[in-house]
Amino acid sequence: MGLTKKTILITGASGFIGSFLVEQAIKKQYCTIAGIRTASSKQFLQDPAIHFLELDFTSDISLDTALQECKLKYGQLDFVIHNAGVTKAVNNLLFEEVNFLNTQKLITALKRNELVPTKFIYISSLASFGPGIGTEPITAFHQKEPLTAYGRSKLQAEELLYQTPDFPFLIFNPTTVYGPREKDVLLLIKSIKKHIEVYIGTDRQLLSFLHVRDLCDAVFQGIESTAVNCNLLVSDCRIYTAKEFNTIVKRILHTKTISLILPVPVVRFAAILSELLGRLSGKVPVLNKERLKEFEAKNWGVDCKEIRNLGYLPQYSLEEGLKQTIYWYKAHGWIK
Ligand SMILES: NC(=O)c1ccc[n+]([C@@H]2O[C@H](COP(=O)([O-])OP(=O)(O)OC[C@H]3O[C@@H](n4cnc5c(N)ncnc54)[C@H](OP(=O)(O)O)[C@@H]3O)[C@@H](O)[C@H]2O)c1
Questions:
Q1: Cα–Cα distance, 301 to 136 (Å, whole number)
Q2: Ligand 1 centroid distance, CA of 83 (Å)
Q3: Which of 54, 136, 166, 212 could form a disulfide with 179 if both were Cys (CB 3.0 to 4.6 A apart)?
Q4: At what angle do helices 60-74 and 102-112 cross, to 10 degrees?
């Protein structure tokens, strides 16, 4: 980077990926503005170099006020990483509201307040592409056919970016992201710790993974490159089976398991039940009909050619990344 610090706004800074993006931006000496909500946790945003900006997407007036305050304090924004989003929800409408409509509100507010950045980075998901056909890895040219309301909401936001003139953007489509502070892959690890290896059906499933720090590297490679107005798929550039993932976890935990192969109809019934219970309790269940569609899909392998062409080289093998993640979970009492 040059002598003057570039300014970057990162939304959803309090979350898993957001907190690492903030860390990376600070490390790279950006003037870093963490976009949060009033009630957001700052547990992983303790660096004194972080500037905070409260963004309330429910009110255009308060978005304008926040962006004007931001402009006054920090001047023009060089980059915006719009990472805030929901990956699970009790009701499918929330996906559209948060992942699509809030993106639309942010784009409009940035334009209205004359704060269009040099590049707007949208953290989308592999879910907007949907699974691969046969065993071929998913490429950036794959026909986008999301399976779920989550994937469709991300695709809506992507389409909006492609239709917005004079608004340079990059869309990142990460596969499953894991690492310290992450709570979903943690559940799989906890199950193996309890000596149970769960499979849905007997068909082989192809998966891909990405360590959160590699995702941050990829995002900043994209920011600092000349690439613009395109999708970039990201994983650790390898493809695994569910069995390989479980074997790696077992090796790290030095544990043995019994395999529980659940017939698909049984899991479907369990998903309906857990969704009903979730609605009653107001909590998002780990298993629901939408997520089951993703669990059932046979091919989540990724071809990362475009991001590799920008110089991205993953630093974490799955084994090394999981080792470090499990160490973090243990050190922080997330697993015993
Ligand atoms: N984790 C993955 O494997 C994965 C894979 C591909 C793509 N992604 C995408 O990466 C992004 C971050 O995911 P994550 O795993 O880090 O999730 P996370 O830990 O749940 O973080 C989500 C962040 O979004 C914020 N947010 C949620 N609803 C909001 C709203 N209505 N208004 C403003 N902010 C809101 C949250 O703020 P609060 O703290 O205030 O709730 C939090 O900072 C998401 O867009 C997700 O779709 C994740």
A1: 8
A2: 6
A3: 212
A4: 50
176 Cβ inside 6 Å of ligand 1: yes
Structure tokens at 100: 């699509």
Annotated domain spans of the chain: 7-179+209-238+299-315
Cα angle 211-187-99, degrees, rounded to a multiple of 5: 65
Average pLDDT over residues 327-336: 96
H or E segment at 172?
A: strand 169-174
Query: What distance in angstroms lies between residue 183's CA and the mean position of ligand 1's atoms?
Result: 12
For the chain, what is the mean pLDDT?
94
What is the C-alpha to C-alpha distance for residues 289 and 304, in angstroms, rounded to an integer?
29
**For the chain, how long is the longest CA-to-CA vector?**
60
Distance CA 197, CA 215 (A): 27
pLDDT, tens digit, for every residue of 121-159? 999 999 999 999 999 999 999 999 999 999 999 999 999
Residue 99 CA, closest ligand 1 atom number = 45
Distance 289 CA to ligand 1 centre (A): 21
The vertex-120 CA angle with 158 and 305, nearest 5°, equals: 65
| DSSP classification of residue 302 | B
Structure tokens at 315: 């630093």
Q: Which residues pair with 4 in a beta bridge?
A: none
The answer to whether the CB of 40 is under 6 A from ligand 1 is: yes
Query: For domain 7-179+209-238+299-315, which CATH number applies: 3.40.350.10, 3.30.450.40, 3.40.50.720, 3.30.1360.30?
Result: 3.40.50.720
Half-sphere exposure of 52 (CA within 13 A, CB side): 16
DSSP code for 220: H
Kindly report the pTM of this predicted structure: 0.95
pLDDT category at 2 given cuts 50, 70, 90 is low
